[in-house]
């Protein structure tokens, strides 16, 4: 017998586009929430990217096709809202308001509905285009990433969209737990500035502007960066003196016993560490240092990482995907295929209630 997920009985409507919104609701669906993806005629735009792209963000959901610009579509939305706990939407603020996807517009159908708006700059922040890479540029992330002598750099995945999806899911659940309906406002810009926590605090309180260090080095900890080895690159992250003592003994390095000394003599420390690590391969250093409890990893490609952790790969329909990162004792998610467009067009409140109780 399948154990119900911790969010069983929670019904969430999604008017999501591409990544941030669909990722948030997929995480909730993996935990047992009943997620209904409301799509426009022709389907949500990410269906046009690739089948695997859509599957990676929309498993465990149902699809209902509605034209929210029509009176009929808005009436149908009201029926769904009346029997739901939350609505999550990521669109431009003007579109959210125009389509009536706010708490003020929907409370007439359900006083306890939680409405989560995911936008670039806030529900009242205007309609300037706000895509992942644009926000990385706008918030200082790109400026502090990359080689000091090179151009600003963007990471190889959608860090802003994914982070905002996680944040929106937390806000949605917090409001549901409160037992009161209302509006939740989450912006891509604010999420990324929040994630720059200690960098922002250093500037706001001490006037320290972020600077780039070679090889992605940490601004406080030394050594904590990438190093070239005899074969491959190694990430080494020494945060306290016990780590350093164990590493130095294995690498044959003397001196620099305290964090303060290593920080004040950064160049000298990096020179001796680089020379030591160049004597062996990244894979061998990892196997030598990990048993000592030292934070270290050889740099792997994504295919190599997936091959090393096959337990994270799940099958949903025709696709192999990375499963939920949330492990809950006694609950094993069931991974269903992403929905075909409008495959639950006949869904009504009664059917949803029956689904909750089954």
UniProtKB/TrEMBL annotation:
Protein name: L-carnitine dehydratase/bile acid-inducible protein F
Highest taxon above the source species: Bacteria
An example Gene Ontology molecular-function term: CoA-transferase activity
Keywords assigned: Transferase
Classification via InterPro entries: CoA-transferase_III_domain, CoA-Trfase_fam_III, CoA-Trfase_III_dom3_sf, CoA-Trfase_III_dom_1_sf
